[in-house]
Each structure stands twice: as C-alpha cells, then as structure tokens.
Design a protein that fits this description.
The protein is α/β, with parallel strands linked by helices and about 350 residues long. About 35% of the residues lie in helices and about 15% in strands. It has helices at about 5-10, 50-55, 80-100, 125-135, 155-160, 185-195, 210-215, 230-240, 260-270, 285-290, 295-305, 320-340; strands at about 40-45, 65-70, 120-125, 145, 170-175, 205, 245-250, 275-280, 295, 315, 320, 340, 350. The strands form 3 sheets. An 8-stranded parallel beta sheet has the order 7-6-5-4-3-2-1-8. A 3-stranded mixed beta sheet has the order 9-12-13.
C-alpha cells in the first residue's frame, strides 16, 4: 500500500477531535433563533432506533450538529408503526427530561450550564404522515421537519399538511424529483416556497441519490458530485439562492474515499451550501473542519462590514468593495459564528460563539 493510501486510511480514525466546536446555542430547550449554518454535519437516523435520546442529550455522537429522525427511506413499510411508537416514546422522554433539568430547586447550590443538543428534525414519509405527526404530544420540542420529494406537483399537499404545525418550527423541503431538472419548474417552485408556508423554510436539501436515480444512475466512486450529471446543483443554486433560500450539500456515501470526500466538501463550502449529510460518525469532524472560517477570511469580511469602510480599498493584497462584497461578508460572519474559525497559521480550530 502506498504512503498516500496509508494516510487516507487514517483520516477517519480521530472522529471526536472537534468537541470544542459544539455550540452552546443548542440548549435542551429550543433556542429562539437559528442560522442554517448550524446544520453542519447532519445525520439521518431511522426512527426505529432506540438510542436517539442518547444522541440528543449527547451521551452518543457528542459532536454531531444536527440529526434527522427518518420515517421515510430508512424505515421499511412493515416497521412504520413501530417507528411511530418509538418516536412518541422519545418525545415523552424528552418532555420529562426538559421539565426536570429546568427545575431550579434541583440545582439551588451549584451552577450548572444548560445542556447542549443537536438540532433535531423529523422526516415523514408523505404529507399525510406529517399531518399525523402534528398531533403528537410534545411535537413542538422538535426543531422542524424534512419534507421528502417536494416539487410543484406535491407542494399543495405539503402546504396543507403544515397548517397545524407551530409557526416556529423549521421546514426543509428536499429537492430530489425528476421535475428538478427543469429550470422553469424550479423558478415556479422558488416562488411557491415563499408563499406556501406559515413556517420558515430553513434550508432546501439537495437529494443527490434520488436525483441520480431519476437518471437511472448511481454516483460514481471516483468523482465529486459536481462533476456528474448532478452538477444540477449549480442550476439549483441559481434558481433558489437569489430568492433568499439556503441549500444543503448531498451525501457522500463512500467511506473509503476520504480524500475525494474532502475535495467535495471544499466545493460544498465554496458554493455557499450550509452543511452536509453524513452517513457515518467518521465524517463528522471533516465536515466541521471544512466549515470553519480561516481567520484571514473573517478579517476581510469584518473589514468589508466596518461602518467606516471605503467604497473600494486594498486589504491583505486584495481589492475589497463593500457594495458588491457585503452579502458574501455577512455570510462569512454568520458561518464563523455558527461553525467556528481556523487559525491559518497553526491550524487550531476555535469556536467563536
């Protein structure tokens, strides 16, 4: 085995290296505001699993940024009722725990920091299931919902299903049907998203594997997703970002290709995508590392946003122009606040929260 292969094989071994990047914003009670960059590394977990509560309270996978409790593809048809029962049990456990940790009499003599947790979303199978979930006890503890296979043909059904949800819950429609290959459809869908829901659309998820399936393809093992026909991501960015939406990056399913994974992460970040689905704990630290903002870049962003910045000025051997760079600079600051920073000189990662 070559030295390069040996190096690649060790990249995933240190999976909990960035524990200090856990944000204190994700308290056991839902914070008042989130930014999509807080999605970071998102892990889908079948609702049939019995250790989800351990992940939420960080006994397991303590560095994960967000989880999506899946009732769709990750649950077989025969296990749907079991999954729903376990979800109800989870919500009851969560509600009981929230009550106990917020009882000041329990902690009268000691100072205890508010526990932290990942963002938690649920992915239902279809609109009817989402409507069913809206009636579950304690469903408001969930940060929001991932809606699969949303396009202009299903949007009205999803809109109706959301009518009984709290207006504070966050929605993440998934772009993963054949209709998404039509840019005219996508322009209509972008407008539709702005009008359909009382809840905020937190981010739009790019469903890479379903888009490949629409073309009777599977992601090749030797290419990043942007060098495949699912380079449609560029078109999706052009259609939805100008309307104010954020998009998340599709999953990378090959655990034996860490170098390629990091190349794709670099592209994800450069395109302004706000987090990436992970399929294994070994991918968490690499996603968090990729989204850290180099201090030199943050320095430029803050210079652009300074109240006394000139119309055009030279900074770090770069021309900066606040009129055209302000939107970029704002996103850099948002990313640094949510994901932390990277010292360009010594590769130390620090949270700036």
């Amino acid at each position: 085995m070559s030295d390069m292969q040996n190096n690649e094989s060790t990249l995933y071994q240190n999976t909990q290296s960035y524990a200090h990047l856990i944000t204190e914003r994700h308290a056991m009670l839902k914070p008042h505001a989130h930014h999509p960059y807080q999605l970071g590394a998102s892990l889908y977990m079948p609702a049939t699993r019995q250790d989800i509560w351990q992940v939420i309270k960080r006994d397991k996978l303590p560095t994960i940024n967000s989880i999506i409790i899946c009732l769709e593809d990750a649950v077989s048809h025969n296990d749907v009722e079991l999954a729903l029962e376990r979800l109800q049990t989870l919500l009851h456990t969560w509600a009981t725990h929230v009550d106990s940790i917020n009882d000041p009499s329990k902690h009268a003599d000691i100072q205890i920091e508010q526990p932290t947790r990942p963002l938690v979303f649920i992915r239902p199978r279809h609109p009817a299931m989402l409507e069913q979930l809206s009636g579950f006890a304690h469903i408001d503890l969930i940060d929001g919902f991932v809606m699969p296979k949303v396009d202009m043909y299903s949007l009205s059904n999803w809109r109706m299903a959301c009518q009984n949800l709290s207006t504070e819950q966050l929605l993440m429609p998934t772009l993963e049907t054949a209709a998404l290959f039509n840019p005219h459809h996508n322009q209509e869908l972008a407008i539709g998203f702005k009008e359909a829901f009382s809840q905020p659309v937190f981010a739009l998820r790019i469903g890479g594997n379903d888009l490949f399936a629409a073309l009777r393809l599977r992601r090749p093992k030797n290419s990043i997703v942007y060098d495949t026909p699912i380079g449609i991501a560029y078109q999706l960015l052009g259609c939805f970002v100008p309307h104010g939406f954020y998009l998340t990056a599709p999953v990378f399913e090959y655990l034996d290709q860490p170098t390629l994974f990091m190349q794709e992460l670099t592209r994800d970040v450069s395109l302004g995508l706000v987090g990436k689905t992970v399929i294994h704990p070994s991918q968490i630290a690499l996603v968090q590392q990729a989204y850290c903002v180099p201090l030199s870049i943050l320095d430029e962003a803050q210079a652009i946003l300074h109240s006394e910045a000139k119309a055009v000025f030279k900074y770090n051997n770069t021309m900066l122009e606040p009129a055209t760079h302000r939107a970029w600079a704002t996103e850099i600051v948002n990313r640094a606040e949510a994901c932390g920073t990277l010292d360009d000189g010594n590769n130390d990662y620090t949270a700036r929260l």
